[in-house]
Design brief:
Helix 1 links the parallel strand 1 (about 5-10) and strand 2 (about 30-35). The chain has a 5-stranded parallel β-sheet with strand order 2-1-3-4-5, with helices on both faces. It has helices at about 15-25, 35-45, 65-75, 90-95, 110-170, 175-185; strands at about 5-10, 30-35, 50-55, 80-85, 100-105. The two termini are about 55 Å apart. Helix 2 (about 35-45) runs parallel beside helix 3 (about 65-75) and helix 5 (about 110-170) packs antiparallel against helix 6. About 60% of the residues lie in helices and about 15% in strands. It is built from 6 helices and 5 strands; from the N terminus they run E-H-E-H-E-H-E-H-E-H-H. The relative contact order is 0.09. It folds into 2 domains: about 5-105, Rossmann fold, CATH 3.40.50.2300; about 140-185. The chain is rod-shaped and about 105 Å long. With about 190 residues, it is α/β, with parallel strands linked by helices.
Length: about 190
């Protein structure tokens, strides 16, 4: 299972630092952004497996906007929103816009790591499914080509049999001549 690349977006420097340290300790590749504008710039330059973003941030680009930007630029990026302001409406809005999950502050790291493990496992399963689909496509293509080649070969053999039958049944020719022509046709194989 590969380590996830995670973009942490939070305007609180203490929370950013804490998330960065705890995630790095678990061997995740972590990049931090202090606000939505920095996150937008980073998302335009890099793909992240997961964006972990605060819901409420100053500066005009909050968590919902970071979610929208991430999904627009990288549809397969998973976004987990974090908020100190528990709100069912915000959670529903976030899920409708493609958020993977929603956590409340203070962050329960066991819960966060469990969710990240689920995301990683899901990505592994999806990658395996894509690999299997690609292998099936290659196999189907090879099988189709083989079937087509066999059909062509069968048609050639059928044509040869028809020519042999015609020669062998041609009573205008002497028997030796019919046999000679039939053998000549067979040698073309």
């Amino acid at each position: 299972m590969k380590n996830l690349t995670i973009l942490v977006v939070d305007d609180d420097p203490v929370i950013r630092r804490l998330l960065q340290q705890r995630l790095a300790k678990e061997h995740y590749e972590v990049t931090i952004a202090e606000d939505g504008h920095v996150a937008e710039s980073l998302l335009e330059q890099h793909h992240y497996d997961v964006v972990l973003t605060d819901l409420m941030m100053p500066g005009g680009i909050g968590g919902i906007e970071v979610l929208e930007i991430a999904k627009q630029l990288h549809p397969k990026t998973e976004v987990v929103l974090i908020t100190a302001h528990s709100s069912v409406d915000s959670a529903v809005e976030a899920m409708k816009k493609g958020a993977t999950d929603y956590l409340e502050k203070p962050i329960n790291f066991d819960e966060l790591f469990l969710r990240l493990d689920k995301i990683s496992n899901l990505q592994t399963i999806l990658k395996s499914a894509q690999d299997l689909e690609q292998a099936m496509t290659v196999t189907e293509s090879a099988a189709s080509e083989t079937i087509q080649n066999l059909e062509i070969e069968i048609a050639r053999k059928q044509e040869l049999l028809e020519q042999l039958e015609k020669v062998l049944l041609d009573h205008t020719l002497a028997e030796d001549e019919r046999i000679e022509q039939a053998l000549s046709k067979l040698s073309e194989i």
